[in-house]
Design goal:
6-stranded mixed sheet, 60s Ribosomal Protein L30, Chain: A, alpha+beta, 6 helices
Length: 357
């Protein structure tokens, strides 16, 4: 468990767990519920990376916590029968203030919490019920629904610092998705302000729709909060090759500094895929790129509070674990069996790090 100081008396808590069976999922989530209660912390989002075998454990966790409108993002593996099982969950919780929960007309959920320095809004598991055969139109509908979920608490898309898009069968319609997002961002003047960090991953969801998405938004109360885009020392900007997101976003407050690093893969400085077919080399370059971003802001992997490790094949996860052992580190993370946004990319990591001041 890692903590980020949001203010003098308010903390954000992060709990990653890894499991591989119905029993281990249920046991891990039950222990997590007890840990939250012992901390007097309230969960604000639950991310599940698992097949349906975790359903009973997730249901019991939600019943124990008693939050009907908790935003939940459930990402399924590409194949629930593949071994080894890559599964886990990540809980983000708040201690020291009382969050408010609500849902849109389409039953998508968001949560609001406030500190003396800033207001926060999170949403996860955004699904739209509209027809999804047209990926371009469905993307626009999903982006509008993100706006609706944030709008419950007076936020707009322009307040977003980070987004997630989990697109089923992503490689077959990534171009229409990117076109719709770019046009939406242009229309809403996102490029004129903060371009959010983001993850775009191929993974099915339990609703069977083309996209499930999420976002974190912030409204600073004063100039004591600084939210800014960060460049990647080892990569060009994603906008250079047509993807509308920043490599990372940093949030500086009087109490902590946080870096939210977008989904990162084995892409060289000019934007081309590097080390095609070589999982060990792709893992190393991916982690080198992330480490360079962290070091540019005087952080390192020991400051990690949250990370998701996406593997195109379950056996590729072993290469990440081997990389960790070679460095003598253990990064808090959840694994996921998912498609990266290019057919020649085997591995991707998103990571969030923070230091308390």
């Amino acid at each position: 468990m890692k903590k980020i100081n949001l203010s003098k008396n308010i903390e954000e808590l992060h709990y990653p767990i890894i499991f591989d069976s119905a029993k281990s999922a249920k046991d891990s989530l039950a222990r997590l519920a007890e840990a939250l209660k012992s901390e007097n912390a309230v969960p604000v989002t639950l991310e599940v990376f698992s097949g349906d075998f975790a359903e009973s454990g997730v249901k019991e966790f939600l019943e124990t916590m008693g939050i009907p409108n908790l935003p939940v993002n459930w990402i399924k593996p590409l194949d629930e029968t593949s071994l080894p099982v890559l599964a886990g969950a990540h809980i983000t919780a708040i201690k020291g203030c009382t969050p408010k929960f609500a849902a849109t007309k389409q039953e998508n959920r968001s949560v609001f919490y406030s500190t003396p320095e800033a207001d926060y809004c999170r949403t996860f598991g955004i699904i739209v019920k509209s027809e999804d055969s047209d990926g371009y139109k469905h993307t626009l509908d999903n982006l509008e629904e993100i706006s609706a979920a944030l709008g419950i608490f007076g936020f707009s898309y322009n307040d977003i610092a980070r987004t997630w898009f989990y697109n089923d069968d992503i490689l077959s319609w990534y171009a229409p998705f990117n076109k719709a997002r770019t046009e939406f961002y242009s229309e809403h003047k996102i490029f004129e302000g903060l371009l959010p960090a983001s993850t775009g991953i191929g993974a099915p969801n339990r609703a069977g729709k083309k996209i499930t998405s999420g976002a974190i938004a912030m409204k600073p109360h004063s100039d004591s909060i600084k939210i800014s885009e960060l460049e990647s020392p080892l990569q060009c900007g994603a906008t250079d090759y047509g993807s509308s997101f920043s490599r990372a976003v940093e949030i500086e407050t009087p109490h902590s500094r946080r870096i939210m690093i977008s989904g990162t893969a084995s892409i060289e400085s000019g934007g081309e895929t590097a080390h095609e077919g070589d999982i060990k080399a792709q893992v190393k370059l991916t982690m080198d790129v992330i480490e360079a971003i962290l070091r540019s802001r005087n952080m390192n992997f020991s400051d990690t509070v949250r990370s998701i490790v996406y593997c195109l094949r379950p056996e590729y996860y072993a290469s990440f674990l081997e990389w960790q052992r070679s460095r003598g580190i253990d990064i808090p993370h959840c694994p996921s069996f998912s498609i990266v946004c290019r057919s020649d990319l085997l591995f991707e990591v998103e990571l969030e790090a923070a230091v308390n001041l």
